[in-house]
Design a protein that fits this description.
Helix content: 40-55%
CATH class: Alpha Beta
Shape: globular
Order of helices and strands: EHHHEEHHEHEHEE
Largest sheet: 7 strands, mixed
CATH architecture: 3-Layer(aba) Sandwich
Distance between the termini: 8 Å
Number of strands: 7
Number of helices: 7
Radius of gyration: 16 Å
CATH superfamily: Gcn5-related N-acetyltransferase (GNAT)
CATH topology: Aminopeptidase
Strand order of the largest sheet: 1-2-3-4-5-7-6
Length: about 190
Amino acid sequence: MTGHIRPAASADLDAAADVLARAFADYPWTRWALPVDDYSQRLREVQRLYLAHALEHGIVLVDDRVRAVAAFLPPGCPAPAEATQRRIVELHGSRLSALTQAATPAAPSGSWTLETVGVDPDHQGEGLGTAVVAGGLALIDEEGGPVALETSDERNVRLYERLGFSTAATTTIPHGPIVWSMHRGAGQRVAIRG
């Protein structure tokens, strides 16, 4: 039973950031992109900053008990505020140079982006990740528009394929993770089995 999926509120952001920090604790991209020292604290704060930006400009969905979260940004979304960008740079610290040199293919023009999705490790495998992503895709489908995402965990590729995404490119980051760039066409509705 996945529970009720709803839009996140500002009051949910701390709990949602905690979920993402736990879910991404061993994720290849964040392990590569953030310094080892104070990794957990840096990861949680980066996630909190990005979630606040997505809440202001896009779609953030959670389940009723905030065990899962997904964040989407629309095409043409503004960059985070200058103070937020400065803090993000500080949090990436010594990894910033490698991060800014990492290149993956651009998303198709006019695409929404699935920026992040995570499920508390104690509740993975219960369908919560699929539910929050499918909820966001349903909202985007109402407006019509493609959706793009990147993942650096091959296990996620099959989840996203079930949701209508296909792999557009696979990029090996020098001295870093492999990144799968995936796209989903506008209005590509997929029936999700519960």
